[in-house]
Design a protein that fits this description.
431 residues; 7-stranded mixed β-sheet; 4-stranded mixed β-sheet; binds pyridoxal-5'-phosphate
């Protein structure tokens, strides 16, 4: 009784006043559970307005790789805020952006040398698609405008990004054929992908296709589907043979999530264009980057103004966000992030293993700091989410896929609490 009363009293005024005026992401507003009022964060924890602490299993959509409120990022952003929060990137340049561009390209394969900054992953994908299409326009092949994408893909919510996202994952199916000039392929599960369909299509209609876009190794929002390294190698060869620009969308996988700094490293092949965002600023400020090879860039290098890339977000290369990204890269250099990812991987494997024998479980899989328990079905998704909150953990299944993508700095105990909550909850569901 007292608990209830306290909880009521702890609902902040701003929450009651503002809730009627916001539109939530991916939500049927009539039936969605109200969002939890958050007071603050620290480490791998979210502190609610009523004082409860949740251990975060998702790291705010995979962004907060160093945990929340890392003092090094905080100091870098504070210092930048005092000097200069933002200047437009047209006609002006600043230290944080140029330093970040230099550092990103030095982490990427030798050929990926030009960075275009934007403010969200979806826009980074739009820019990658525009670069690919205009590359062909500028080199005299203006009919190459379509893209090949993959079953379970998710590349964002803007129009171009939607057009290469698999409609079957359910996020954009309401739009029907409105954005479907591109082709989504099912190359089958498992280590021996079947590219026959793509080869046939490109043999016939290759002159209409600009490129191939894929999330390397792990397809994130489309259900945490794991893909083989071999698929990436086959796509690299196919792209070269069939005159296609290969785009790796590493917005989910980039910055250590799959066990290497970037997922493509495990396949030993490089893309022509890579998109980065999510963990780029360690989960602090919105920023994205589209990085292109010298070869792509050279197709835009001309005396002809029509050959320029016509894109320029207002907040492009925001100085605060670039300062946060530089500080985040410092942390990858100074702190043992990749060893932490390796340790998390082992702990996820062990912690989730006992789910394998439960009747409702279709698959348990782990790659780097991504742990997945896929169920046959989930009848009450909102109820499942609430059940996790009751146990003091923030875990948000995507449909029938329960997953963990924690901060790399999470403690062993906190991680054990997360995996324990999943095992317990799936056991309850299986009864
Ligand atoms: C999240 C995500 C995007 C879209 O990024 P936003 O910042 O939400 O626009 C694109 N691609 C992948 C692989 C993602 O995970």
């Amino acid at each position: 009784m007292t608990g209830q009363a306290n909880k009521k009293a702890a609902i902040p005024g701003w929450y009651a006043a503002g809730l009627e005026h916001i539109w939530l992401p991916y939500a049927q507003m009539k039936t969605v559970s109200p969002p939890l009022p958050v007071a603050r964060t620290h480490g791998a924890r979210i502190v609610l307005a009523d004082g409860r602490e949740l251990i975060d299993g998702i790291a705010s959509w995979w962004t907060a790789c160093h945990g929340y409120n890392h003092p090094h990022i905080k100091r870098a952003v504070e210092a930048q805020l005092v000097r200069m929060p933002h200047v437009m990137f047209g006609g002006l340049a600043h230290e944080q952006a140029l330093t970040l561009a230099k550092r990103l390209t030095s982490l990427l394969p030798g050929d990926l040398t030009r960075v275009f900054f934007s403010d969200s992953g979806s826009v980074a994908v739009e820019v990658a698609m525009k670069m690919a299409v205009q590359y062909w326009i500028n080199t005299g092949k203006p009919k190459k405008t379509k893209f090949i994408a993959f079953r379970h893909s998710y590349h964002g919510d803007t129009q171009g990004a939607m057009s290469v996202t698999d409609r079957a994952i359910g996020m954009h199916d309401v739009f029907g054929d409105a954005f479907s000039q591109n082709t989504v392929f099912d190359v089958g599960p498992g280590p021996a992908p079947d590219l026959g369909g793509i080869e046939t299509l490109l043999a016939r209609y290759g002159s209409e296709y600009a490129g191939i876009i894929i999330e390397p190794l792990v397809q994130g929002a489309g259900g945490m589907i794991f893909r083989s390294e071999k698929l990436l190698r086959l796509l690299r060869r196919l792209a070269d043979d069939a005159d296609q620009i290969l785009i790796f969308d590493e917005i989910f996988t980039g910055f250590g999530r799959t066990g290497t700094m970037f997922a493509y490293e495990q396949a030993g092949v490089a893309p022509d264009i890579i998109t980065l965002s999510k963990a780029l600023t360690g989960g602090t400020l919105p920023l994205a980057a589209t990085v292109a090879t010298r070869n792509i860039f050279n197709a835009f290098w001309s005396d002809d103004p029509k050959k320029a890339l016509m894109h320029g977000p207002t907040y492009m290369a925001n100085a605060l966000a670039c300062a946060a990204a530089n500080a985040s890269l410092d942390l990858f250099e100074r702190e043992p992030r990749m060893r932490q990812v390796a340790d998390i991987s082992v702990a996820l494997d062990q912690g989730l293993a006992s789910c394998r024998d439960l009747p409702l479980v279709k698959d348990v899989r782990v790659k780097g700091a991504v742990g997945v328990v896929e169920l046959d079905r989930v009848n009450d998704l909102e109820g499942l989410r609430a059940r996790f909150i009751e146990q003091g953990v923030f875990i948000r299944p995507i449909g029938n896929v329960i997953y963990l993508t924690p901060a790399f700095t999470i403690s062993a105990d906190e991680l054990a609490t997360l995996t324990g909550a999943i095992v317990k909850t799936v056991r309850e569901l299986s009864q």
